[in-house]
Amino acid sequence: MKYPTILITGASGQLGKSFNKLSIRYNCEFVFADRLLIDFSNLQSITEFFNKNTVDLIINCAAYTAVDKAELEQELAMKINAEAVALLASIAAQRGIFMIHFSTDYVFDGKGYVPYSIDHSTYPINQYGRSKCAGELAMLSTDALDGVIIRTSWVYSEFGNNFLKTMIRLGNERKEINVINDQIGSPTYTDDLATFILANIQHFTWQGVRIYHFSNEGACSWYDFAHGIMELSNIPCTVKPIPSSQYPTPAKRPNYSLLDKSKIKEDFNWSIPHWRDSLKVCLTFLTQKN
Ligand SMILES: NC(=O)C1=CN([C@@H]2O[C@H](COP(=O)(O)OP(=O)(O)OC[C@H]3O[C@@H](n4cnc5c(N)ncnc54)[C@H](OP(=O)(O)O)[C@@H]3O)[C@@H](O)[C@H]2O)C=CC1
Ligand SMILES: Cc1cn([C@H]2C[C@H](O)[C@@H](COP(=O)(O)OP(=O)(O)O[C@H]3O[C@@H](C)C(=O)[C@@H](O)[C@H]3O)O2)c(=O)[nH]c1=O
């Protein structure tokens, strides 16, 4: 086993919980760290953890993900998404630990009209995006670090809070909801991302830091996603398409943030499910849970 002990930070988040759910299939020791064990807003807590523990691989799922709140809590977002990532990266580099980290489609400005390639220039348009971008740069500029930044988008799962769960709640409360149809991207089911990583763990061995993109296949707007959620959950709520101008939010979102996944599919010979197929799978788990 290449990596006998794997640290998963942000263990109580959506992606962290998918890793937990899928980890039973793998024969390694997983250390699931929530914020009580490692607090990313307190750098000392990161250092203390590594002074007491030895791990072979870091999968960093911890992040500040409240996009609108980040406009007001810029410092906290930067601390968790950039400063803590920089420290984690430097510890990983010093100890020769491979580091898997996640970033977002929100590092792009959304002015594109073809899927964003891994080397497209970043230009975030909100504070969350800026903090994630700073985290990427910290990793890329850490000497002797081996690792990967996997940018993903519109993450949802049966765990935690996400767009899927908000739509189901609103759909059950209202006869009609308005959802933006001029922001285009692709949803990502956490199980698909976590499965990809766990199944390929032995291949994460290169030197230096690479960037990859991962989301489900297909493109949609938030309106298409919401419409699909109502349809596949049999919720009789009408979803009305609206322009972003009719749904003002504190943080701007990119209008187009589809990720080009060709590199990850080629390098790992991996096929990724279409977002509608994964949505069906997730809805089955959600129904079992409730
Ligand atoms: N959610 C999305 O739509 C997208 C997410 N991503 C990226 O994917 C990764 C995983 O995201 P996802 O699982 O969806 O995010 P979640 O918000 O579901 O989970 C984030 C985790 O980070 C933890 N966390 C927050 N603050 C701290 C802190 N101070 N110390 C330690 N842990 C902390 C949270 O803890 P607690 O549970 O206690 O709050 C939570 O467990 C992140 O890097 C995110 O930026 C990328 C694109 C889209
Ligand atoms: C609830 C709601 C949202 N919307 C719009 C607002 C927004 O443009 C879009 C998505 O809303 P949310 O606030 O749920 O999603 P948001 O927090 O913007 O999601 C983002 O989270 C971060 C962490 C990421 O990294 C991104 O990839 C992306 O997933 O849907 C509606 O149009 N109608 C509604 O009723």
From TrEMBL:
It catalyses: dTDP-beta-L-rhamnose + NADP(+) = dTDP-4-dehydro-beta-L-rhamnose + NADPH + H(+). The keyword Repressor does not apply. Pfam families: RmlD_sub_bind. One of its GO terms (cellular component) is cytosol. The keyword NADP applies. Pathway: Carbohydrate biosynthesis; dTDP-L-rhamnose biosynthesis. GO terms for molecular function: dTDP-4-dehydrorhamnose reductase activity. One of its GO terms (biological process) is dTDP-rhamnose biosynthetic process. Residues 5-284 form the RmlD-like substrate binding domain. Signal peptide: none annotated. It is an enzyme of class 1 (oxidoreductase). Keywords: NADP, Oxidoreductase. InterPro entries: dTDP_dehydrorham_reduct, NAD(P)-bd_dom_sf, RmlD-like-bd. Its EC number is 1.1.1.133. Belongs to the dTDP-4-dehydrorhamnose reductase family. Catalyzes the reduction of dTDP-6-deoxy-L-lyxo-4-hexulose to yield dTDP-L-rhamnose. This is dTDP-4-dehydrorhamnose reductase. The gene is rmlD.
